[in-house]
Each structure stands twice: as structure tokens, then as C-alpha cells.
Recover the amino acids of this structure.
């Protein structure tokens, strides 16, 4: 380890060149300024980053793989969208509620909030339809609630890296998955950069800022420049590691007993759908 | 002399992972403090707490006799006065510089403090001369070298003339010449009687005369 010793001559020179006011304390009285916008922006960035960090450490089911969860969610959305029967939707709701019972209160809230909001929004949109069709107009909000709930439950119970890896098993092109992976990574990295810059702005905002939006614009600009630098550096790093435009995701499939359970769940769900719709 | 900064039994956790454990500390005005310890021991977390960016889950923090709490900093004027008195130089200058030119970066503080444009120019010029970066004044901060960015971020913070200067790992990522400059600057600045807090992994690297060394251990406690 190199020992960095202060050079006494230079240190002394610096001291003599130091502005005199740096040795005094300012008698500064700040003026009031509204900084709600800045505080809300910082809070919003932190909330999004926390959600992403929580997702990366999300509890993953040992029994149900990400591939199965994605497949089941897509199948559920398909059946829910095609179904005209309240009975099928009620059975799905029952299953959904049983699943929710196995989660913590906080997770349940995070699943139900967007689902309820989306259902309420769709209800408002189709409210005029109630004048003409009273018997089945509520099916749409019901379907919206179930599909949004299913997707939120998938997102909260499966880390992004597991989802993108599982997409490989569903024969999604590797390049698409790579872009998705890089996007998630840079959202986190640039989010941290933006958060730090906003914090720096907050700490130095000790008076009245007449150009609040310009300062925020500068931060956006800096974040954009950083994203460009990251992109160029990643491109160079990939080229150095022999990247030729192909992105392979290793998929190893071994027949396991749990796959029988997966098949049974899918058969039961499909049977319920076809039975309630009158195809069986 | 009463303590300028007083921490009493501070605990802080990041989502149940402890970052600071039972920290009690008193820092008097004009003291030079060197905080050392391994990576992830809580040095940067302590700096965030001292700057009022995070608040302890238990324990009390007083700055110049005033309690620093979410409620006290909710008052706009108290928060501004508090932030004016503490200058914080981030570990990574890239995330501290957000203005289009070096001049604007250093002028940001004086303009905030309602200085006239001529008074702002005088303060900025003096600082740029002092830090020997006058030739960079019209350059964009993101195009500078690591050592130059560090000097600009120091100038930007000094422009507020804080009572306390905190520098997080100031030697990180700098070449030897820049490291020597930073060390000279710290020696010179501590000589004018301002309170300084510096973090560094290695205690010997920044062991300046009359400094008080505070060591963190891996259990996030002060030794």
C-alpha cells in the first residue's frame, strides 16, 4: 500500500491561498421556499427502486418454477378473457383467495391494491352500459380484477431474473430477453444515479431556487448522459467478450415428480373452463 | 465546549439488516474526525444520518443542541439552515454534479443564498483559484477527469461555506497526484478551525495531525 503523505509546503501554500471567508461562519438566514415537488420526486424514485430491490429478493417458490407460473398466468388470462360464465370466474376467484391466504398481509395489500384500482377504473368506464345490460355488465370489472391480480401476484412472487430466464423456455428470442435483462439492470442503475443527484440538489438547496425545473432538467440530462455512457461501456464489454448478436440462455430440463402436479393443475383448470362454458 | 454533533445510542437498519448499532458519539466544533472501518460497516450510512437524509430507528441525534428528526426537518427553514451548515462531498462526484458548467455548479450555492451575481462571481472565482481549477470554469463537469470532478464537487460544497465538512472516501478512485492534493487540502482546511469528518478504509492513509480516529467494526459498532 502506498502511503500518501501530505506535502507540508503545498499544504501551507493552500492555506495561504484559502479565501478568508472560509475561516468565518456565515450569519445566514434562509428564506422559505416550496420544495414539495423535489421531495415528491425523490420519494417517488426511492419507492420505485425499493420495489425493484424487493423484487430481486422476492421469495421464490421452491415447488412452483417461474416457467410454470408464467404459463399458468397466461392460461388464466386467456380463460378469464374468453369466459362468459360467472361460475368459472367465481371458481378462479376462490382459488385466488386461497392463494392470497398463504401470503403476508403486506403482500396481499400490494396485490389487491392495483387489482382493485384497475377493476374500479373499468367499472367507471362501462358504467353507462348498466343502463342497457344489467345482468352481465359487472363481468368486465370482475375479469379485470382477476387478471390484474394474477399478473401482480406473478410479479411479486417471482424475481425479474427468474422471469426473463423462464421466457427462454417459452422460446422467446434470446435477444429480446437480453434487452429485457439490460433494461431492468439499467432502470436500477440509473434510478440510483437520479436518486443521488436529487439528494445532492436537495442538500444544496439552502435558499430560494428560482429555477427549480431547470435544476430537475439538468438532473434528467445528467441521467441521460450516464445512460449513454453505460450503454457504450456495455457494448464495448460485450464485444470484448466475443458477443456476436446471439444470447443463449441455458435451459436444463429433467423430468421431476412436481411436473405431474403442474400437468394436473393445468388439466383441472382447463376442465373447469370447458365444463362451465358447456363444451364438456 | 458543548458538542456540535451529538449521537446518543443510535440504531439504524436497512430492511431488518442492521447498518448502525448503538452508536454514541460527540464531536466538538473544530474537531477533525477520521472514520475508518471495513466495507459495509456503516460509515456512509452514518454520513447520511448526520446529513438528515435518513433517520435513526432508535436513539437521538442533536446538531448544535437541536434535535434532528423528520419532524424538525419538515420545517423548511430549519432544514435549509441545517443543510447550509453541513457540507457533504459524496464518494462519487458523478452523482453530485448536476449543472451544465463548472461555474454554474460552484455558483449554485451562492445563488441559492440570494447573493448578487457580482458577489456570486467573486466567491466562485476565489474558490476556483484556490482549488486551481479556474481553467475549467466553462467546461461541462461530466467531461472532466476523476480528480478534476472531485475538486469541482469540493468547490461546489465549499461555496456554501459550511461549518462542518464531510467527505466520504475522498481518495477513492483517484491517482496518486490527486490523492496528495486531497490530503493537502484536508490538512489546510482543518487548520482554519472548521469541523471535518472524513471516511476512509485505511486509517494510516489519511492520518492527519491532531485527528481523532473513530473505528467501526464489522458489527456496525464504534470500537
Amino acid at each position: 500500500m502506498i502511503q500518501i503523505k501530505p506535502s507540508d509546503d503545498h499544504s501551507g501554500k493552500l492555506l495561504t491561498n484559502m479565501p478568508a471567508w472560509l475561516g468565518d461562519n456565515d450569519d445566514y438566514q434562509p428564506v422559505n421556499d416550496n420544495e414539495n415537488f423535489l421531495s415528491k420526486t425523490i420519494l417517488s424514485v426511492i419507492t420505485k427502486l425499493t420495489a425493484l430491490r424487493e423484487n430481486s429478493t422476492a421469495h421464490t417458490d421452491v415447488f412452483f418454477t417461474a416457467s410454470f407460473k408464467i404459463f399458468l398466468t397466461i392460461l388464466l388470462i386467456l380463460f378469464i378473457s374468453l369466459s362468459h360464465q360467472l361460475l368459472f370466474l367465481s371458481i378462479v376467484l376462490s382459488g385466488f383467495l386461497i392463494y392470497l391466504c398463504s401470503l403476508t398481509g403486506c403482500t396481499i395489500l400490494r396485490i389487491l391494491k392495483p387489482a382493485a384500482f384497475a377493476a374500479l377504473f373499468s367499472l367507471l368506464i362501462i358504467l353507462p352500459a348498466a343502463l342497457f345490460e344489467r345482468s352481465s355488465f359487472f363481468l368486465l370489472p370482475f375479469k379485470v380484477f382477476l387478471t390484474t391480480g394474477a399478473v401482480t401476484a406473478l410479479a411479486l412472487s417471482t424475481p425479474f431474473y427468474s422471469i426473463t430466464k423462464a421466457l427462454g423456455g417459452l422460446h422467446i428470442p434470446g435477444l429480446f430477453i437480453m434487452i429485457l435483462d439490460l433494461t431492468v439492470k439499467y432502470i436500477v442503475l440509473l434510478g440510483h444515479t437520479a436518486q443521488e443527484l436529487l439528494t445532492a440538489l436537495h442538500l444544496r438547496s439552502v435558499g430560494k431556487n428560482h429555477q427549480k425545473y431547470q435544476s430537475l432538467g439538468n438532473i434528467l440530462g445528467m441521467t441521460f448522459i450516464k445512460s449513454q455512457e453505460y450503454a457504450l461501456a456495455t457494448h464495448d464489454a460485450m464485444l470484448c467478450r466475443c458477443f456476436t448478436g446471439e444470447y443463449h440462455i441455458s435451459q436444463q430440463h429433467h423430468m421431476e415428480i412436481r411436473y405431474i402436479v403442474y400437468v394436473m393443475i393445468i388439466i383441472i383448470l382447463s376442465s373447469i373452463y370447458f365444463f362451465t362454458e358447456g363444451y364438456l | 465546549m458543548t458538542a456540535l454533533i451529538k449521537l446518543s445510542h443510535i440504531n439504524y437498519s436497512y430492511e431488518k439488516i442492521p447498518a448502525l448499532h448503538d452508536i454514541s458519539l460527540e464531536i466538538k466544533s473544530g474537531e477533525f474526525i477520521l472514520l475508518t472501518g471495513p466495507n459495509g460497516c456503516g460509515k456512509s450510512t452514518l454520513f447520511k444520518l448526520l446529513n438528515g437524509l435518513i433517520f435513526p430507528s432508535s436513539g437521538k441525534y442533536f446538531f448544535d443542541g437541536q434535535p434532528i428528526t423528520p419532524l424538525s426537518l419538515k420545517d423548511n427553514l430549519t432544514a435549509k439552515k441545517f443543510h447550509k451548515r453541513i457540507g457533504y462531498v459524496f464518494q462519487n462526484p458523478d452523482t453530485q454534479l448536476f449543472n451544465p458548467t463548472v461555474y454554474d455548479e460552484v455558483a449554485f450555492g451562492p445563488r441559492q443564498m440570494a447573493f448578487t451575481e457580482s458577489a456570486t462571481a467573486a466567491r466562485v472565482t476565489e474558490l476556483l483559484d484556490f482549488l486551481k481549477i479556474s481553467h475549467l470554469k466553462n467546461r461541462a463537469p461530466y467531461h472532466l477527469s476523476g480528480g478534476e470532478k472531485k475538486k469541482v464537487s469540493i468547490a461546489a460544497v465549499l461555496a456554501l461555506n459550511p461549518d462542518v465538512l464531510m467527505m466520504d472516501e475522498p481518495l477513492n478512485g483517484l491517482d496518486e497526484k490527486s490523492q496528495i492534493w486531497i490530503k493537502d487540502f484536508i490538512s489546510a482546511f482543518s487548520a482554519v478551525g472548521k469541523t471535518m469528518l472524513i471516511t476512509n478504509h485505511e486509517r494510516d492513509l489519511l492520518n492527519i495531525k491532531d485527528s481523532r480516529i473513530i473505528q467501526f467494526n464489522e458489527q456496525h459498532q464504534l470500537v
